């Protein structure tokens, strides 16, 4: 559904060229939900804007929804939906009218657009807001309206840029259900960026991690977690001297990292901690070591992130996206 | 993807509907949306209609005694063409402000990611502005009749249409500049900076002629296309529809509108290269 090779974008600024995206290769197959993760300024939005024809790539090429990005941007536009971070509706206009007008730009007839729009309003819990002025909607409602705008023409490929930013937990969970429905019921392909690791974890079949303008890792959430950090086994010994003995035994586990001891707390990282835990407990028991607690912590995507990029994804979670947000002014 | 098996029928339907030319339809969609939003703003509508009336009633009387000195038998025949041009300019110069608001709301980006022709995105909005100026122009002329305007019907029609075309040019220009600057704070001084010399050198309020102005000022004003547009409309109001002055004014207005629309479309298109 998306095949990009060497996609790059360089901005010219007064202080010289800035490589926002340095050459991205990516493949997304039909029916996948792919998450695009990266810290702020990593090139997420720039890549997304190139793939959606809004920004001409400096180098590289791509096929999006079966059409050549450079050669036939019109065909790309007809086949994709894009929910941008910046919103899509005028505060002065009424919600339903914005939706119907937008659909018409895709050649959907007014009646069909209104019917589909009301259906989407229902699914995204916007019932009763059809005739409301957009500026009177809450942040979360306006965000969901953006999603209606992006889906109104039933695109086969949907790009979502930070779709759940500003939504409350219930609305987020709701949206996840809807995104899964897009794939399961309509066979759409979804490409989304997100700051929320739990979102990527829960929603995405596959994750691409971008940093400094290149893709640094890709795989299923499980693959990424295993590849990077392994599981954390946290054991609470009854005394500090026991803790040292526990650590010595834990260090024997195959592939174990050097255990850290903090008071009575012993932490060790091992690949496949789940399968090794039982054996470890038996050994400890045979050594007459009592434990006050056992915890197995699966790696989070944040661990993955920290390892891959040296930064936490949560660093600087401001609304300020990639540097290209203001690119038009510089151009 | 031709291999997509589960593409819903509605998407295929949308694709098929694109087969015919979409320029006209998309232009009308953008126009209707812009018009609807404008009409919902009552202050905007009232002020738009009040403006020409204020000009006529507060400035017109000053001109009446001056008319013979300026070589006109009817003060309003001289004055209304200038007001029409001013309407065309100032009714359209600041439409870019609204566009910056829309850009900030993400509307422009959402439209640009749709398959609508970029020219339709500009022209739809410009048509709204043209229609507004057309209505204001008609009100202006109607009120001017109450004040004592005398002019041939077809001359008035052509004059109002010329003012509306001028509005198309300035509106496109305003949209293009707005989308380049993306800042109201930068747009306002720039537009005023452009408009003021154009206005002063156009002879809108007082005609600039070899007799009435120093030679350098007259020469400078002759370089201003707006002056020729005003002269053209004055000729039309004087019943000289086929004269070189009138035709030259109309041709220049058409050219300005074409350049404006080209510039506007180019700006909407540019970022996708």
UniProtKB/TrEMBL annotation, chain A:
Membrane-related topology note = Peripheral membrane protein
For region Disordered, the annotated ranges are 312-331
Family annotation (SMART domains): AAA
Please give the InterPro entries that the UniProt record associates with this protein. Answer: AAA+_ATPase (IPR003593), ABC_transporter-like_ATP-bd (IPR003439), ABC_transporter-like_CS (IPR017871), ABC_transporter_ATP-binding (IPR050763), DrrA1/2-like_C (IPR025302), P-loop_NTPase (IPR027417)
Chief location: membrane
Q: Is this entry keyworded Nucleotidyltransferase?
A: no
Q: Which Pfam families match?
A: ABC_tran (PF00005), DrrA1-3_C (PF13732)
Q: Where in the cell is it found?
A: Cell membrane
Cellular component terms (Gene Ontology): plasma membrane
What are the boundaries of the signal sequence? Answer: none
Asked whether the keyword Cell wall biogenesis/degradation is assigned, the reply is no
Q: Where is the ABC transporter domain?
A: 2-237
Q: Name one GO biological process term.
A: response to antibiotic
Q: Which UniProt keywords apply?
A: Antibiotic resistance, ATP-binding, Nucleotide-binding, Transport
The family database entries (SUPFAM superfamilies) matched by this protein are listed as: P-loop containing nucleoside triphosphate hydrolases (SSF52540)
| One of the record's GO molecular function terms | ATP hydrolysis activity
Q: What is this protein called?
A: ABC transporter
Q: Which organism is it from?
A: Cellulomonas chitinilytica
Automatic annotation (TrEMBL), chain B:
Citing just one GO molecular function, the answer is: ABC-type transporter activity
This chain's protein is named Transport permease protein
Superkingdom classification of source: Bacteria
Transmembrane spans: 42-63, 75-100, 126-147, 153-178, 190-217, 246-264
- Residues covered by the ABC transmembrane type-2 domain: 43-271
List the subcellular locations: Cell membrane; Membrane
Alphabetical UniProt keywords: Antibiotic resistance, Cell membrane, Membrane, Transmembrane, Transmembrane helix, Transport
The answer on whether this UniProt entry bears the keyword Electron transport reads: no
Q: Name one GO biological process term.
A: response to antibiotic
Q: What is its main location?
A: membrane
Q: Which organism is it from?
A: Cellulomonas chitinilytica
An example GO CC term for this entry is: ATP-binding cassette (ABC) transporter complex
Similarity comment: family membership? Belongs to the ABC-2 integral membrane protein family.
Q: Which residues form a coiled coil?
A: none
Entry annotated with the keyword RNA-binding: no
Matching entries from Pfam families are given as: ABC2_membrane
Its membrane topology: Multi-pass membrane protein
Signal peptide positions are: none
